[in-house]
Amino acid sequence: xxxxxxxxxxxxxxxxxxxxxxxxxxxxxxxxxxxxxxxxxxxxxxxxxxxxxxxxxxxxxxxxxxxxxxxxxxxxxxxxxxxxxxxxxxxxxxxxxxxxxxxxxxxxxxxxxxxxxxxxxxxxxxxxxxxxxxxxxxxxxxxxxxxxxxxxxxxxxxxxxxxxxxxxxxxxxxxxxxxxxxxxxxxxxxxxxxxxxxxxxxxxxxxxxxxxxxxxxxxxxxxxxxxxxxxxxxxxxxxxxxxxxxxxxxxxxxxxxxxxxxxxxxxxxxxxxxxxxxxxxxxxxxxxxxxxxxxxxxxxxxxxxxxxxxxxxxxxxxxxxxxxxxxxxxxxxxxxxxxxxxxxxxxxxxxxxxxxxxxxxxxxxxxxxxxxxxxxxxxxxxxxxxxxxxxxxxxxxxxxxxxxxxxxxxxxxxxxxxxxxxxxxxxxxxxxxxxxxxxx
Length: 440
Ligand SMILES: Cc1ncc(COP(=O)(O)O)c(C=O)c1O
Prior knowledge:
Helices cover 39% and strands 15% of the residues. It is an alpha/beta fold. The chain has three domains: 11-73, Winged helix-like DNA-binding domain superfamily/Winged helix DNA-binding domain (Arc Repressor Mutant, subunit A, Orthogonal Bundle), CATH 1.10.10.10; 91-98 and 331-434, Aspartate Aminotransferase, domain 1 (Alpha-Beta Complex); 111-325, 3-Layer(aba) Sandwich (Aspartate Aminotransferase, domain 2), CATH 3.40.640. Strands 4-11-10-9-8-5-6-7 form an eight-stranded mixed beta sheet, with helices on both faces. It has a three-stranded antiparallel beta sheet with strand order 12-15-14, covered by helices on one side. The protein has a two-stranded antiparallel ribbon with strand order 1-2. The termini are far apart.
C-alpha cells in the first residue's frame, strides 16, 4: 500500500491532515508517522512547524511520542474492569462482586410518580438521607451531586479540573477502573505505595513533589488490598495535602455502608477542590448505577453544567435506592452482610496462615491480596486455574508493584478456604523448587 501523504504547510494544517488520514483509515493505530525531519523536508517547512503539529496531536491524545519508536497513532487502550468471564467450572474467587444473597431486597415502585424534563435532579427522600448520613462527613460547605456510580464520579470530577497529560496520584496497587480511567483520559498515573494503613506518607510526599494535580484515595477497605486509613495516617496525609491546597482530592469511599473500619477524612479544610464519593454498588449491587458525591461548590457546579439529560440519574433508580436506605430493616441487613464478608475474609486468611502463606495484613473489603515475592504471577494463576480456582493476576491492579494475586472472598464457602490455601501452598512450593535460582 502506498505511504499515506500528509499535507499542509502549517502546524494546524499538518495536524488536520493526519486526523483526516486516520478518519479515512489510511493511518491506523500503531502506524508510525514520518520523522519530524523527513516530513519537514518533504513539505519544505521548518522542523518546528512539523513538531508543533505533532505536539498538538499528542496533546489531543491522537498520537503518542515514543522515545525510540517515533510518533505513533494511538490505539484504544484496553482496560480491565471488575467481573470475570469464561471461568468454566472453576471456583470464582476472581470477580470482585458482592454476594447477591447479601444484598437487601429492593422495594416495589409504589410511591414513584412519573418524572419529566425540568423536574428536580435529586429525589427528596434521597437528598434528606444524604443530608443526615453523608454531608456531615464532608464538612459544612459540601454540595450533593449524583452520578452513575463511583467510576463515573471519579472520571467526571477529574475531567472537570484536569487536562490530558496531568499527573494523578493513585494507590499502588489500585482499583482497576481507576487505572483505566486515568489511561483512557490520558492522565499520567503516579503510583503511591500502600501498606496496611493506607496510602503511605512518603509515597504521597513524593507524588506531590512530582507535581500531581489530583490525588485519588480509598479511605477504607481498599480494593485490592483491604487497607483502611488509621487516624494517624489520615492526619499525616491531611498535613501533606494541606501544603498543596491547589491539588484536587477525591476520596472513593466505595465500601462505606459495609466497612468495619470508620471513615477517616484525608481532605484538609483548606483544599479548594475535593469530592467524597459513596457508591451503592457494593451494598445494593453494581447494577444500581448510583453514587452519592459530596464536593466543593465549584466542582458541583461543573458537574451540573451539562445538558440536564446527561447529568440526570433516573428517578426510578433514586426511588429504589432511597427506599432501601430509609427502610427500617436495612441497618440490620447491612450489618449482617458486613459481618459475613469479614468472616469469609478471615476464613481465607486463617487458612493461609495455617499453610505458612502471607498476605497483605489489611483487613476490610471483599478481597485478599497475596504478594508473590518474585514468583511469576501468570504461572501461579494458570496453575490455580488448572486445579479449578479462578483468581485475578495482581498486574491488573498495579503500576509498579511486584507480582501478586487478588482473591475475592465475598462468596467463599468454608470448605473452599483450606482447599484453596493448600493448593496455593503446593503451587508456590513446586514453582520455587523448579526455579533455577532456588537453593539446591
Ligand atoms: C475502589 C472502588 N471504587 C468504586 C467501586 C464501585 O464503582 P461503581 O460505583 O462505579 O460500581 C469499586 C468496586 O469494586 C471499588 O473497588
